[in-house]
Every structure is written in structure tokens, then in C-alpha cells.
Design a protein that fits this description.
This protein has an eight-stranded mixed beta sheet with strand order 1-2-4-3-5-6-7-8, sandwiched between helices. By secondary structure, the protein is of the alpha/beta class. It has eleven helices and eight strands. It has a domain of 232 residues: Alpha/Beta hydrolase fold, catalytic domain (Rossmann fold).
């Protein structure tokens, strides 16, 4: 959830994805085949001309490729290191790889968060950026076969989920440590309660902490456009209000495309119960399009109980699933 640093899954194996569509009409320049193959950084004017949208795109040499789009967690950290580490992996599988840069941040930037980001950091703002990038793809991306596979991390997975639900070209989505079965306020309360119990806190202390949490959520929702922050210096009330209002399980239930959930049981940021609820709900509905990778010994950062990183194991499992989706040539979201 908010406030956690980004993790690169294996240097070239693994990552998460999701899908999206919505017919937004932006005036954007067209690509030319030669420039697309030679260029990886693209800059577009935002619709209100207030700033520039930067995204990264790497394409394979052969035509007829899907696009894998990575949606990182919330925070003021450049997505470039992740893109740079994984682009060759996906192009070698015959897929293009794309990611949208954090608003107002220079490539590779970290922590020095621009005011532009803080003023425009919400689920809706981020969604518009991906829609604009996709409109540019539709304008003319030579060789694209009109399939999108999404990979989203932590709360970025919930954004990827929304995009997958909205974008007609979406053919698969993967969520890493994102939960999705419980509304965000319930996840926060459950995570707080579990952490305090592990610390040996009394029932009265837990009750008081949950009451304060509920009160804080109320203050956020009463002032949803505020630049005040909570649980992290980049997590403004504007961002929190957009995040706390999500209903991810409803989106998951409606999606017919292949879905992948990866989650560690020891995750203290996003409770494992949230992903467990997704699995249970899919069984209730007799839906068969979910693959659930449940790691008994891993936390939110994919560290085991001995503090050893298991990025390679998680990344290999995910990449195997993604490769299968690429090779299957699945149908897009109806």
C-alpha cells in the first residue's frame, strides 16, 4: 500500500500487469515505424497543455506483438529503473513493453517530489495518463496486434484493474500484492488490527486505534482535494480519497480475461485475506479465469521469514504466466 518503496522483480524476469480501454479523444501525433523502433522515450502534451506526459516504450523487431504495460505503485519514484530492467525480457518474448513516468519527475528521479505531482496525484489523474498513451498507440503503433496485458504492483494493481475493465484491447491482467477482495478502508483496518495483535497490544488499544483510523478516513473524505498528507509525504488527501473509494472486487467479478494474483501471507501492508476473498468469490461464481499464486512465507516486499529476497521465485512464476498469455493470443475484454 502507500508509502512502500518499489521493488524490481528479477532483473529481467517477472512483473505485473493489467488491461484498459476508454474512448478518450486526444489530439496526438502519429508514430512512424522507424522512430518507434529507434526511440524509447516519448513526450506528449497533456490535454490541458499544463505539462508533458512522458512514457517509455520498447518494441520487438517482428510485427504482430501485444503490449505489456506496467503500472507501478503510488509514489514519487521514477518508473524508468523498472522499465530499463525488464524491457529486454518482454521484447525477447515477442511483446512490446510500456510504462508511464511519474508526473513531473525526470527519468530516474526519486524522492524530490515536484509540486505538479502532488497537485495531480489521484487514481483518476493517473488513469487519464494511461488513456492518453493508449490513444497514441491507436493512432499508429506499427505491428501492434491490439492486445494489452497489464501488470500492476500494490495499489498500482488496482489502477491496472480499472484500466483492464475500461479498455477494450485488454487481454490479461496481473496484480502483485494488490489484494482486491476487500474495500481499501477494510484492508487498512485489518492490517492495523493484525499488526497490533502481533505486537501484543491489548484489545482496548486496538479498539482505540481503529476508531482513530475511522476518524482519519472521515477527515480525508470530508476534504478530498486537500494537499495534506497521511502515511507518507506523497500521499495527499486527494490521492487517499480516490483510493479509498475504490471497489476492486466488483471490477474483478466482471472481467472475463485471464487474471493473475500474487500475494504473500506475511504481507503487513495489504492483508492476505483480501486476495483470499477474491479466490473465494470466484469459486462462488464458478469463474475459472483466475490464477492465484499464494506464497506462505513472503511479505509485501517478497522477503521470506529469514529476510531473504524471493524476487526470483515470484518473478519466474509471473513471467511463466505472462508468456503463456502472450503465446495463447487471448481475446480482448468484451
Amino acid at each position: 500500500m502507500a508509502g512502500h518503496s518499489p521493488r524490481l522483480l528479477v532483473a529481467s524476469r517477472g512483473f505485473r500487469r493489467t488491461a484498459l480501454f476508454v474512448p478518450f479523444l486526444f489530439f496526438l501525433p502519429h508514430f512512424h515505424a522507424a522512430s518507434v523502433l529507434a526511440q524509447e522515450t516519448f513526450v506528449l502534451p497533456r490535454n490541458n497543455a499544463s505539462s508533458k506526459l512522458v512514457y517509455y516504450l520498447s518494441v520487438p523487431a517482428s510485427d504482430g506483438f501485444p503490449v505489456v504495460i506496467y503500472v507501478q505503485e503510488n509514489g514519487c519514484r521514477s518508473v524508468w529503473p523498472y522499465f530499463e530492467a525488464h524491457r529486454a525480457t518482454f521484447t525477447s518474448l515477442g511483446a512490446a513493453f510500456a510504462a508511464v513516468e511519474v508526473r513531473g519527475l525526470k527519468r530516474g528521479g526519486r524522492w524530490r517530489c515536484p509540486k505538479e505531482f502532488l497537485r495531480n496525484n489521484s487514481i483518476g489523474d493517473r488513469m487519464l495518463d494511461y488513456l492518453q498513451m493508449l490513444h497514441a498507440f491507436r493512432g499508429e503503433l506499427p505491428g501492434w496486434d491490439r492486445r494489452i496485458l497489464w501488470v500492476g504492483e500494490s495499489e498500482g494493481g488496482l489502477l491496472a484493474l480499472m484500466l483492464a475493465r475500461a479498455i477494450s484491447e485488454s487481454t490479461a491482467a496481473a496484480l502483485l500484492g494488490s489484494g482486491g477482495g476487500l474495500p481499501p478502508p477494510e484492508e487498512l483496518a485489518l492490517a492495523k488490527s493484525k499488526a497490533m495483535k502481533e505486537e501484543g497490544r491489548s484489545e482496548q488499544e486496538i479498539k482505540q486505534a481503529l476508531a482513530e483510523l475511522l476518524a482519519q478516513i472521515g477527515r480525508i473524505m470530508e476534504d478530498p482535494e486537500s494537499s495534506k498528507t497521511w502515511l507518507g509525504r506523497t500521499n495527499t488527501f486527494r490521492w487517499w480519497s480516490s483510493y479509498l473509494s475504490l471497489n476492486p472486487l466488483s471490477d474483478l467479478e466482471k472481467l472475463q480475461i485471464p487474471l493473475y494474483l500474487a500475494h504473500g501471507v506475511r504481507d503487513r501492508a495489504v492483508p492476505i485475506e483480501s486476495s483470499d476473498r477474491v479466490e473465494a468469490r470466484f469459486k462462488e461464481l464458478e469463474k475459472s479465469n483466475l490464477t492465484y499464486a499464494r506464497y506462505d512465507d513472503l511479505d509485501h516486499r517478497r522477503l521470506d521469514s529469514k529476510g531473504q529476497s524471493q524476487e526470483d521465485r515470484v518473478g519466474t512464476d509471473l513471467l511463466d504466466w505472462i508468456n503463456k498469455q502472450i503465446q495463447m493470443g487471448g481475446k480482448s475484454q468484451p
